[in-house]
């Protein structure tokens, strides 16, 4: 695990929780003492790139996008041929990594999201053509230790970023708005917060456990002439559905611009 910050620690912790022996996971940091402290917390090993990378089955790059160039150069120096390299960095294309790693290196680009920190992440992975089916499964298993993981072609990563990558922020925004509304309606803030958070959790659980279409579930709480349809009418009048579409288009375009910028800077 190259980078033992928020995401690197999250994935390493997920792997340990999933039963992978901690001593087989090495956390590598820029600062050896900090990496050792992180590793001790996670019950994993710590070491340098030169110590950890040559014998690894998979090298996970969990550094900030702006630190990828340096990290890739360090890894490239000692990487054994055929070793899988997977990146958790937002917006770093496969081509950027492949150009900096030894020819023939199998690479996976991934987009995790913040709920991985509570074991409920949603990640998408895009393997390049050199990955064997076993390596794709290995990458999927690494991500699945912190939640769910799906495989998508790399060209869909901008849409993934717009939906599940940034998605938690949209839902937090909805939660904030509903809590404010509860306070306006006279509820104590703590009560409004509890009502909204559990409602979100309950609705998400219903979606997952029933497998019903969201429209069906919404219609179940929409009595003719009742309270829910009165509220939905306001949301439609304020074009909330269209706003979500525009917001996610904007996020996807921004994601593409950022990735294109990385490649253009080559
Ligand atoms: N946080 C999230 O929820 C989230 C969600 C989706 C994707 N991601 C992606 O995950 C990646 C990591 O994000 P993060 O939030 O975990 O960042 P972070 O907390 O800043 O952690 C990055 C870690 O990488 C270390 N590092 C930098 N260069 C290194 C190198 N050459 N060798 C070894 N370690 C190095 C840093 O060390 P120092 O402590 O010395 O700086 C830091 O500990 C990013 O690319 C981001 O796009 C994160």
Automatic annotation (TrEMBL):
One of its GO terms (biological process) is L-proline biosynthetic process. Pathway: Amino-acid biosynthesis; L-proline biosynthesis; L-proline from L-glutamate 5-semialdehyde: step 1/1. The keyword NADP applies. NADP(+) binds at residues 62-65. Gene3D superfamilies: NAD(P)-binding Rossmann-like Domain, ProC C-terminal domain-like. GO terms for molecular function: pyrroline-5-carboxylate reductase activity. Catalyzes the reduction of 1-pyrroline-5-carboxylate (PCA) to L-proline. This is Pyrroline-5-carboxylate reductase.
């Amino acid at each position: 695990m190259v980078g033992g910050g928020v995401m690197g620690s999250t994935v390493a912790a997920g792997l340990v929780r999933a039963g992978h022996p901690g001593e087989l996971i090495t956390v590598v940091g820029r600062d050896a003492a900090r990496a050792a402290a992180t590793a001790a917390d996670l019950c994993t090993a710590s070491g340098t790139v030169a110590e950890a990378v040559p014998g690894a089955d998979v090298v996970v790059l969990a550094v900030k996008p702006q630190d990828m160039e340096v990290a890739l150069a360090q890894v490239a120096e000692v990487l054994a041929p055929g070793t899988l390299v997977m990146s958790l960095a937002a917006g770093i294309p496969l081509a950027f990594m492949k150009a900096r790693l030894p020819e023939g290196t199998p690479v996976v680009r991934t987009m995790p999201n913040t709920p991985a920190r509570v074991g409920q992440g949603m990640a998408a992975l895009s393997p390049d053509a050199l990955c064997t089916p076993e390596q794709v499964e290995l990458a999927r298993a690494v991500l699945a230790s912190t939640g769910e993981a799906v495989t998508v072609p790399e060209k869909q990563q901008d849409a993934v970023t717009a939906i599940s990558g940034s998605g938690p922020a949209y839902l937090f925004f909805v939660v904030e708005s509903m809590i404010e509304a509860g306070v306006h309606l006279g509820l104590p803030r703590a009560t409004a917060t509890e009502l909204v958070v559990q409602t979100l959790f309950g609705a998400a659980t219903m979606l997952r456990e029933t497998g019903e279409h969201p429209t069906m579930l919404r219609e179940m709480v929409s009595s003719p002439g009742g309270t829910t349809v009165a509220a939905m009418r306001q949301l439609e009048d304020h074009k909330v559905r269209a706003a979500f579409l525009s917001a996610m288009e904007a996020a996807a375009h921004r994601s593409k611009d950022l990735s294109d910028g990385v490649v253009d800077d080559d």
